[in-house]
Backbone:
């Protein structure tokens, strides 16, 4: 007998298959899946799609400033720095992001809040990852972590599109309990929304190590090369939600950090200082979402 989570997975898988991808996006994915394309080849494909090219340039400007400030050939330089696999998965994430504008705002989904959440998770994940003493021995470059962080948000981000009634019910429960949507999701479905993201885009052939990084960190082998990435993304989600940068329009009560707090050893004072610094980065980066920089409602 199917569980509620398995039924939700099926809705997502069917929904993603119905989404039309641009010809350029599909060609990029196929080209990378079938070989080792040169940066020049990928650059030409990206430039054929003005919308995709614009999104890549925005990501480069905000997430890879060392490239945007030192190169006249931004897209090709970013491809070389990120690696083709990160380019592939960023293409997937950017394509799926573009579909979120189709969601009915009456469902309580705010694209601006979602954009701030995605940016916050990416910035926080990169920060806590880099400051960890084991980061030097890990195989996750910044471009990969950016892509994985954005994909991790799609589990909740696509819910109003593929399962609107379930999203409305989840938001009502979470608001009543003053908890994050992720916490309410875990209680309702016995799984993390990041798992829904990986199953939803299975047709896009997400790499195995991305699936590992988006797996609940306590289910990843601590000896795995993906363990630190999984912990960083999970801790970033916790910090973002409790700092008022989640999708929630209600205050979220702080929950125990458990193993994550021990893994990253950040005091409450350090977390507060980090969130204050985050606001500056968010304000600068919000133009990549084509919406005003300040949300209508920010959780208290």
Residues:
């Amino acid at each position: 007998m199917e569980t509620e989570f398995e039924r939700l997975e099926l809705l997502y898988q069917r929904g993603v298959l119905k989404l039309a991808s641009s010809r350029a996006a599909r060609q990029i994915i196929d080209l990378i899946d079938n070989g080792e394309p040169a940066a020049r080849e990928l650059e030409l494909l990206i430039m054929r799609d003005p919308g995709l090219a614009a999104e890549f340039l925005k990501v480069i400007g905000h997430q890879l400033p060392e490239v945007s400030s030192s190169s006249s050939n931004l897209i090709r330089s970013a491809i070389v720095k990120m690696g083709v696999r990160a380019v592939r998965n960023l293409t997937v994430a950017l394509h799926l992001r573009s579909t979120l504008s189709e969601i009915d705002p009456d469902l309580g989904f705010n694209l601006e809040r979602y954009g701030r959440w995605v940016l916050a998770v990416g910035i926080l994940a990169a920060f806590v990852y880099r400051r960890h003493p084991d980061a030097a021995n890990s195989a996750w470059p910044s471009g990969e972590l950016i892509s994985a962080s954005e994909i991790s948000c799609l589990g909740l981000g696509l819910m109003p599109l593929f399962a609107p009634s379930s999203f409305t019910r989840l938001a009502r429960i979470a608001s009543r309990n003053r908890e994050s949507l992720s916490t309410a999701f875990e209680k309702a479905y016995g799984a993390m929304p990041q798992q829904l993201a990986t199953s939803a885009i299975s047709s896009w052939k997400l790499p195995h190590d991305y699936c590992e990084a988006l797996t609940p960190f306590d289910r990843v082998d601590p000896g795995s090369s993906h363990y630190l990435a999984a912990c960083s993304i999970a801790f970033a989600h916790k910090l973002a939600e409790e700092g008022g940068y989640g999708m929630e329009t209600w205050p979220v009560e702080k929950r125990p950090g458990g193993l994550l707090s021990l893994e990253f050893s950040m005091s409450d004072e350090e977390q507060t200082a980090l969130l204050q610094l985050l606001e500056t980065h968010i304000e600068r980066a919000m133009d990549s979402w084509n919406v005003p920089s300040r949300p209508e409602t920010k959780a208290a």
